[in-house]
Amino acid sequence: MRRDLGHVPELDGLRGLAALSVFVLHIVNSQIDRLPPSAVSPTWQLLSRLAGFGTLGVDVFFVLSGFLITSLLLADRANPSFFRDFYAKRLLRIQPVYLVHMLLAWFLLPNSHGYVLLGFVFLVNFDAQFHVPDVGPAWSLSIEEQFYLVWPQLVRRISMASLFRVCIGLAIFSSALRTGMILIAHHADVRSTWYRLDGLAIGALLACQWMGEGESQTRAVRRFLKLFNSTAVLIAAAAAAALFILGLTRNIGLAMLPANYLTYRLIRYVLAYPSSRRFGWMGARPLVFLGAISYSSYMLHTIFISLYDRRVPPETTLDPFRFAVRACVIALATLVSCLIIRHGLELPAQRLRRYLISRP
């Protein structure tokens, strides 16, 4: 079993691209949502459509998270302090930025108190059920934390063969449930944990393959992986993604499975061919930098969007210059805040690992 995944700059770059896509989505659509429909020209409608692909940036985060976290868990399975170390690492990685986000939301965003209270118990993705306004991005963190409350228990306690089957079962169950609800009921709550487990499970499945190197795979699992990793499935996923890109289907829930799968294949390729130049551009310094601040930028940029829009009167038309000024101001505020938080909170918190974790 591989014990050291090592640092892969391309994965940082992929995370940076995902964060950038989400930022563009919120910048564009929050601007367009402030205008009457008659003021949105076909050009801006097209821009909104393109920015909408940023919704899938969260799915990229989920697959990456499932892969990276499960890889670390598998490498640490024999550690006597397995659970303490995992949750201590998670606490030091997630909580500093998360608490800053919650404090800023509480004091700066209107109607945010219910959101913050749900955030402290990681139930923001069920805000609709609690009749709480949606004011921030913590719903995706809630899905992850709900998953990681249970997942380490399984990684530690069940065999690799069983873990392969669980990953495959979760991926099939979640994607089939979401797709079935969309096709039958024409609606699926894509912020519900059950509808988004496939991204995390597909990432975890890749971790099992990468860390396990084929060990403990049953015949059924080997057959599934042979099909899952085939060129035919890759072409089918690319075709399904093309349907969404071309606008032949506009339901974002139907695009999540091909997005998850294509992310899986991209990560798999980068790991298998680390010296390949095909995706070497993803390891460029600007993208790696964006990956390093991706979490804090994801948690903070919507706050700056809200603050800016509350202080600048809405326009009656979309002026490109004013739109560019707005985007630059929000981006700069987000960047400066991320740098302050990274050097003032995140990195100092990581240095505490040596005191709390037996195997940093």
Major sheet characteristics: none
* C-alpha-based Rg, rounded: 21 Å
Report the count of strand segments.
Answer: 0
End-to-end separation: 19 Å
Q: What percentage of residues falls in helices of 4 or more residues?
A: over 70%
What global shape is seen?
globular
Write down the domain tally: 1
DSSP strand content: under 5%
Average of the residue pLDDT scores: 91
Task: Characterise this structure.
The chain is mainly α and 360 residues long. The chain has one domain (9-356). It is 72% helix and 0% strand. It contains 15 helices and no strands. It has helices spanning 9-32, 42-51, 57-75, 82-108, 113-120, 138-157, 160-185, 197-212, 219-228, 231-245, 252-272, 285-292, 294-311, 320-351, 353-356. The mean pLDDT is 91.
Protein traits:
single chain; globular
Brief write-up:
This protein is an all-alpha fold. 72% of the residues lie in helices and 0% in strands. The mean pLDDT is 91.
Topology:
Elements: H1 9-32, H2 42-51, H3 57-75, H4 82-108, H5 113-120, H6 138-157, H7 160-185, H8 197-212, H9 219-228, H10 231-245, H11 252-272, H12 285-292, H13 294-311, H14 320-351, H15 353-356
Helix pairs in contact: 1-2, 1-3, 1-12, 1-13, 3-6, 3-8, 3-11, 4-5, 4-6, 4-13, 4-14, 7-8, 7-11, 8-11, 10-11, 13-14
